[in-house]
């Protein structure tokens, strides 16, 4: 235990965010990192409680809690407190291939299940993770470590998001020759073309890809498997295949006027923005601009937040974000106890920026979109909505049903609507070509833990297998699929 009285002496401190008025003028990181001494105090707050719920992924009453990759959190909190940073890095790398990604973008279910969080603010685990890995890079402790021997086995991985990258990293360590195929022009999946630059700068992704390439992994970009290369070549030319293609089919909103110009999927908006930012600092104009427009984001989740923040940086005229569900409570509801993920209201970075600019949180809860109206050229002009509430009908299924509230109809001016309502699963084409079975939600059918599909030697991991999720879960699944793929190739495995 770092310091027996640490949690009594020090209060939780998280890195300050740059003021919204400043950060909306650029695409640079939001946070100002804590100093080493501040981090030492934060590490000291860890109580090394007898049963650390933070480091173990568990399910309580159907809700998951704790770190999905079982990071050894109390151990590295203690080591940071003692200033033994290199040992902390060794511990961290045992369980996490990419702490520089999770340290920036993970929602930190670990902190939601920290024991200290029962009656005090939890330990700032995510920031300590970030600091350990960044110190590792700045001190030069992280260098390419190619495997000593090669097995002669060849593995293809389709998709270069965090699941594909974690899988590739592990299989390469086991000595297999790994090729990662990616249809986009850059590696990284949603790390590169989903999450905006201010949350995850793309040179951080490139830094890791450079290391992995130096360790012997082959990356092939601009190639869509199933279109540019027949899927059958993956199984004939390689000893095993891992599908990490993501859940890339966005949910549509099939209401009248949905095909008007000016209605875009959130991922298309975000991808084009990052691509243009990286290619030309937005000078090429090859992105969907929100400048001077009334923008409505439909979907109150994290992707919607990224759209809000991006539209603000384009200098949109006005902004609203619709959520069909009611506003969550300010504190945990009785049926959502610790250590479950708290379903509570929070002002995320995009909404904070919108509030600073326009005076209030842009989210409108309990709003249903009924219709889009355009002009004679087919360009969107208005969004028509009605308010809804959710009621449990007596004698019904027990689940709340949506009810429109008469008299709450409203017309919103809008020239750009961004649809951020989640994803429906992986695209069917490649799975069909390989004859891989899909489950009831259209994901690649492969059991969690074994990750093997119905086709011998073909595995599936990440969002393509579990549906839309988180970077940390993609890393978990990529590691697991690598372990099972290694077992398939060698008859046994030492991979965790
Ligand atoms: C806008 C947005 C923001 C998000 N923000 C966060 C966040 O802050 N924190 C967090 O934890 N999670 C976040 N997520 C979720 C997270 O990004 C995903 O859960 C994670 O990236 C899934 O990883 P993956 O490797 O399974 O798939 P992906 O990252 O989707 O990667 C799949 C890759 O496969 C490629 N591909 C697909 N088919 C083929 C083919 N036939 N041939 C070649 N390549 C192919 C795709 O081009 C893509 O690059 C966000 C998601 C979105 C959409
Ligand atoms: S990966 Fe996420 S859940 Fe795990 S320790 Fe880091 S911030 Fe917490």
Could you please describe the fold and organization of this structure?
- By secondary structure, the protein is of the alpha/beta class.
- It folds into three domains: 6-138, Alpha-helical ferredoxin (Fumarate Reductase Iron-sulfur Protein, Chain B, domain 2), CATH 1.10.1060; 154-248 and 424-490, FAD/NAD(P)-binding domain (3-Layer(bba) Sandwich); 263-419, FAD/NAD(P)-binding domain (3-Layer(bba) Sandwich), CATH 3.50.50.60.
- The protein is built from 18 helices and 18 strands.
- The chain has helices spanning 6-9, 20-23, 36-44, 73-81, 85-95, 99-105, 109-112, 125-138, 162-173, 190-193, 202-214, 231-237, 266-280, 302-313, 349-358, 428-434, 463-466, 471-490, and strands at residues 16-17, 31-32, 58-60, 63-65, 154-158, 177-181, 218-220, 240-243, 263-265, 294-298, 318-323, 363-365, 367-374, 380-391, 401-404, 410-413, 416-419, 458-460.
- The strands form five sheets. The protein has a five-stranded parallel beta sheet with strand order 7-6-5-8-18, with helices on both faces. Strands 9-17-10-11-12 form a five-stranded parallel beta sheet. Strands 13, 14, 15 and 16 form a four-stranded antiparallel beta sheet that branches.
- Strand 5 (154-158), helix 9 and strand 6 form a beta-alpha-beta unit.
- Helix 3 (36-44) packs across helix 8 (125-138).
- The longest helix is centred in the C-terminal third of the chain and has 20 residues, at 471-490.
- The chain starts with 5 loop residues before the first helix and ends in a 6-residue tail after the last helix.
- 45% of the residues are buried.
- Iron/sulfur cluster binds next to helix 7 and helix 8.
